[in-house]
Amino acid sequence: MITTRPASIARRLAGALALAAAAALPAAAWAAEAAQSLKLQVNGMVCSFCAQGIEKRLKALPAAGPIFIDLRNKVVAVEPLPGQVLDAQKVASEVREAGYEVVATETVAQTVAQIRAETRAARQGR
């Protein structure tokens, strides 16, 4: 018969939990970082050609990942690539150089996919 002390089991369990928490931390930090997107309010976008021109310019930025453009609500959202940071002034400058007026810029704690889903849900609710 093998006997184990409750204190020994508790130490092993605590060690395993600490190791699991340490392993999960980088993933949680990356997920939080990935959810930081830039959301711009842009005037002057009226057609899909406008959206394509903006998207082409933004895709050329080295840190730019997924992009969402909503013509109806005048929104341009850009998510950085993992491990990258977007320069809000550079993003706004690219949109202005494409010929559009940037009214507001904000950093939001959402991915582009979340912004897209939120926009579609709002449309269906109307």
Structural write-up:
With 126 residues, the chain is an alpha+beta fold. It folds into two domains: 1-34; 36-125, Alpha-Beta Plaits (2-Layer Sandwich), CATH 3.30.70.100. The chain has helices at 6-34, 48-59, 88-97, 112-125, and strands at residues 36-43, 64-70, 75-80, 101-109. Strands 2-3-1-4 form a four-stranded antiparallel β-sheet, with helices on both faces. The radius of gyration is 22 Å and the shape is globular. Residues 17-34 have low confidence and may be disordered.
Helices and strands in order:
Layout: H1 6-34, E1 36-43, H2 48-59, E2 64-70, E3 75-80, H3 88-97, E4 101-109, H4 112-125
Antiparallel strand pairs: 1-3, 1-4, 2-3
Brief description of this entry?
This protein is an alpha+beta fold.
